[in-house]
Structures are given as structure tokens and as C-alpha cells.
Amino acid sequence: QVQLVESGGGLVPPGGSLRLSCAAEGIIFRFYAMGWYRQAPGKQRELVAFITPGDSTVYADSVEGRFTISRDNAKNTSYLQMYSLKPEDTAVYYCNADGTIIGVSGYWGQGTQVTVSS
């Protein structure tokens, strides 16, 4: 059974930092691209950051230079390090495992809440 379990969310003041983790089970992790998405109330889900199996990365303009995505294939885990957080970063953050490269379906985690507020 495939599971993506996010952790690390919480309440942080503006300017603060958080690191989100996404632990994957039931997939051959190193073959999947990993993405972090977020959805704020009343808004559509949007891509935050993406990392390929070869460690190429893509970031949304709004987080470029503040967020860093990484992966540890030995631990089947993806990370999103977030610095200089702003109130507009408040959202539910979702982990995604993208199997497009190997021609299989992708998977989503259940989400973790990030709230940036003083």
C-alpha cells in the first residue's frame, strides 16, 4: 500500500522557518519525481517546488530563494525547507509523488497545515 506522510507543519511568526518532510512507503522512491504543492483557503492548489529523480529542481516564483526542496533516496523522504516565511505562505502543504517518468500513477499525501502569523 502506497503512503505519503507529511510532517513538520505548524504555526510560525513572519520571518520564521519550517522544514516539512514527506516519508514515502510502497513505491520505489528513487524513480519518482517529488513535488510540494499548497492550497490556501478559497484558492486553487498550486505547485511550490519540484525535484526530479536526477535532482533537478523547479520553484514557484513566489518562493524562489526562500524555499529549498531536497530528497534523500536512502530514507525515501522528500523535504521542503522554508525560510523567511510570509503570511501569504499560509496554506495546507501537500506532498506528491509523480510517476510520469516511469509511466505510472502519482500519489498524494494527506497534507500538513502551515500557518504564518504573529
Describe this structure in words.
This protein has 118 residues and is mostly beta strands. Helices cover 0% and strands 50% of the residues. It is built from no helices and eleven strands. Strands 2, 4, 5, 6, 9, 10 and 11 form a seven-stranded mixed β-sheet that branches. The protein starts with a strand and ends with a strand. The model has no long low-confidence stretch (mean pLDDT 96).
In a few lines, what is going on in this structure?
The protein is mainly beta and 118 residues long. It is built from no helices and eleven strands.
Total number of strands = 11
Biggest beta sheet attributes: 7 strands, mixed
Distance between termini? 40 Å
What is the general shape?
globular
Summarize model confidence as the mean pLDDT: 96
How many distinct helices?
0
Unreliable segments (pLDDT under 50, ≥5 consecutive)?
A: none
The succession of helices and strands, N to C, reads: EEEEEEEEEEE
Rg for CA atoms: 14 Å
Task: State the share of residues found in helices, binned by percent.
Answer: under 10%
**Class by helix and strand content?**
mainly beta
Strand content: over 45%
